[in-house]
Amino acid sequence: MRQTRVFWFIICILIGLIAGLIYGWWGNPTLPAKTNLPTPRTDYNNNYVLMTAEVFRVEKDPASAAVRLLALDPHDPLRPVQEAILTAQENGYNNTDITLLADLASAMLSWQTVPTVVNR
Amino acid sequence: MSRRRFPWYLITGLLVGLTAALVYTWLIAPVKYSGTSPASLTLAERDRYRSMIALAYASNGDLGRALSRLELLGDVDPSAALAEQAQRYQVGGLPYQEVRAIALLSSAISARGIDFLQTAAAATVTAGIPGFRETQTATYAISAGTATQLAIIKPSSTPLITFTPLPTSTPEPTLGAPFSLKTMEQVCDPEEPLLMRVFVSDASSKGVTGVKVIVTWADGSDSFFTGMYPEINRGYADFRMQEDVEYSLQAGDAGEVIGPITAGKCSYADGSPYWGGWRVYVYQP
User: How far A20 CA lies from chain B's nearest CA (Å)?
Assistant: First the structure.
């Protein structure tokens, strides 16, 4: 009798687990409200980089551009630009856009390699 | 005679399993979203995306591209969303350049009367953004005067975009003559007491968006921009006055200083007083 009860108790736990997994992952998953910029699709991110490049063409301010790009990669503003250039070439962006991205990439490269003056 | 007891242990087992699974799925191993659209971004990130769209528009003047980008965010009324964001940014003290760019884009959209009719029954439009893997469905109903025109962009297998800056019909502040006072009138409106309404227009009497309006008083000043309320007028801005304070107003950095402006007293039909406001019309001769 006791073994039967333990058996059905375990079965119920398993049923609860399966139901909970289905509900928690598919039925009512944690909301995507915490999605930040790096998670959207790559082409959206590339579009963000292209917008940054369009603004940079006018502003000519690598620091502002870098701040905007850090939203995509908090460690390296150059990396999203490089990725965007690769995607641009693969997807046949027009030359104007690729040139804009290339200009931004070279600006980011120069910006990163600007020597820091150390006061001794 | 023995009564069968309700099998509570089975319910307990179910609850234990369910609780453990929910803790695991919601806290330990929650669903990770990747490849999401900008529409699923947080409010702050959507703002950032919208802000970038506006800045890019301010740089290239390509309204078509800006609209395609805005469509990704799925705002029901992109113009209103932009205007609302511009107001929030202004209150939050964000850079003038950004606030102005957002207000300009909002105004440009409302000026063109572009409605986002996101319906599959409408024409299929390839989003005018390079690199798109999918097509978006939308119709842009562009009203020009009484005539309504449907602009349909055919889907293309090659995700190319023609980078043609479009002329904008939105009057923007230019380096023309400084803004001067056209007329000003005291307004008695019990619904909006102490409100200074400023209307900035160009020589052809069209409202001008993005003009910085500076209000100064004895011990302080404030500045704001026109274009935050395109539903009223593209050149409209307002300021809440204090009682018995003298203000002076200047539209644009080199504009005429207008004032002193002081809230006047109005009275209800029964004679009880309330504070009135002002309407100030400024123009660029």
Answer: 5
Neighbours of B8 (CB within 10 A): 8
**What ipTM does the predicted assembly reach?**
0.71
Return all residues near B5 (Cβ < 8 A) that are at least 6 apart.
Answer: none
The answer to whether the Cβ–Cβ distance between A12 and B33 falls below 8 Å is: no
Between residues A110 and B32, the one the model is more confident about: A110
Q: Which of A35, A93, A96 is the best mutation test for B, with the most CBs of B within 10 A? A: A35
Question: Which residues of chain B fall short of a pLDDT of 50?
Answer: 114-170, 173-174
Of B171, B276, B272, B258, give the one whose Cα is nearest residue B216: B258
Q: What is the pLDDT of residues B5-34, one digit of tens each?
A: 778 888 999 999 999 999 998 888 887 766
Structural domains of chain B sorted by starting position, each given as residue range(s) with its CATH number in brackets: 39-114 (no CATH), 126-161+171-283 (2.60.40.10)
Contact B163 A96 (CB under 8 A): yes
Q: Three-state SS string across B115-182, please?
A: EEECCCCCCEECCCCCCCCCCEECEEEEEECCEEEEECCCCCCCCCCCCCCCCCCCCCCCCCCCCEEE
Q: B33, A52: Cβ pair inside 8 Å?
A: no
- Assess B41–A contact: CB distance below 8 Å, yes or no: yes
Residues of A in contact with B7 (CB under 8 A): 8
In chain A, which residue's Cα lies nearest the Cα of B18?
A16
Does the pTM surpass 0.80? The reply is no
Q: Does B165 touch chain A (CB under 8 A)?
A: no
Whether residue A94 and residue B48 make contact (CB cut-off 8 A), yes or no, is no
pLDDT in tens, A33-84: 555 555 666 777 888 999 999 999 998 899 999 999 988 888 888 999 998 9
